[in-house]
Amino acid sequence: MLAIRGVGRAVGQPGLARNAALQAENRVIFSLRTSVLGAAINTGLNLLLIPPLQGLGAALATLISQAISAYGGVFLFRALRPYGRMMTRALLFPNPFRVPGSESSTKGSPSSTTVA
After folding, report:
1. 68 is in which domain, residue-wise?
2. For the residues 86-102, what does the mean pLDDT come to?
3. What is the per-residue pLDDT for 109?
4. pTM for the whole thing?
5. Residue 13 half-sphere exposure, CB side, CA atoms within 13 Å?
6. Which of 34, 36, 66, 95 has its CA 20 to 30 A from that of 76?
């Protein structure tokens, strides 16, 4: 159960960044809407999963509802779809500054220079 909760923390992180951006743009109503969506999904999944799976069901319900609230919710509201595209790009290409193939090259790095 603890491992599922750990994954849930990682899944919810993009939602925190999105909420900070929404707050900076004074669009907190969308943050409220996605949070209410997540709470409703969590309640429904708790009702379905806790009786057969007990604590594991609660952990799974929380993980699924956080994923939907943090990531899936941005595609439900038209105004949030640009955030969804940004979040998808961040998941697919996590470091935009990394040059492909640069990790195998040590040319010019401080550890590869020799001092005479």
Report:
1. 2-92
2. 75
3. 53
4. 0.70
5. 8
6. 95
